[in-house]
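Subject: sequence -> structure tokens, single chain

Hey, anyone have a minute? Need the predicted structure for the following. Not urgent.
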Amino acid sequence: MHVLILGGTGEARRLAGLLHGAEVAGLRVTSSLAGRVAAPRMPDGEVRVGGFGGVEGLTRWLRTHEVDALIDATHPFARTISFNAAAAAAAAHVPLLALRRPGWVPGEGDRWHPADSLDEAAELLPALGRRVFLTTGRMGLAAFAPLDELWFLMRSVDAPEPPCPARMEVLLDRGPFTLEGEREVLRRAAIDALVTKDSGGAATSPKLTAAREAGIPVVVVRRPPVPDGVAVAATPEEAAAWVRQFSG
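Reply:
Had a minute. Here:
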């Protein structure tokens, strides 16, 4: 049995490890990474890096490499590859599962402002603060570029490319982050607004706790939906159990 994991997340690496260590005869696991991060954390098992060439390319890869099950364990905001995976799986008649960590839920004291896009998040910012901690990644910074009156601390794994806000400091770092560390970031940079995507998970959630403690408003960009008809697992363990039903 050949399983293809569309990865790049901690959950994808965890799933690859679970399947790689599973005592399932004939189980082959390939993880696919997009190649957008310069030094990605590599999962166990076989790894391929790079795009597929859209729906047709992914469909062809599934057929050529005789994939028996496809798992979309990409970032919750990787909308294009998720919809390509749904279309390719249907065309190649391969069962598909989406592995999605649960989204964050606001708690007492949170000052969250939901947004449906980065553009909408940018529109909300001028009324919320002047020194912004931007944690939406290095892609899509063009949405914030027109906000010349604001100052940004932008954190990402790799350096961003223009267009970017004119008044911006870049912090290159990779999670998981600690609560004490996030408190220090907010204090040192005198942050008065935070922008984040609803990525979910514990690795990057301490910033939300730190913002709540400091009374800082948070613009939360809602995640795109999983394609219609695609089954969803919340944990790598659930996804591994889904694979085992096909291997028996």
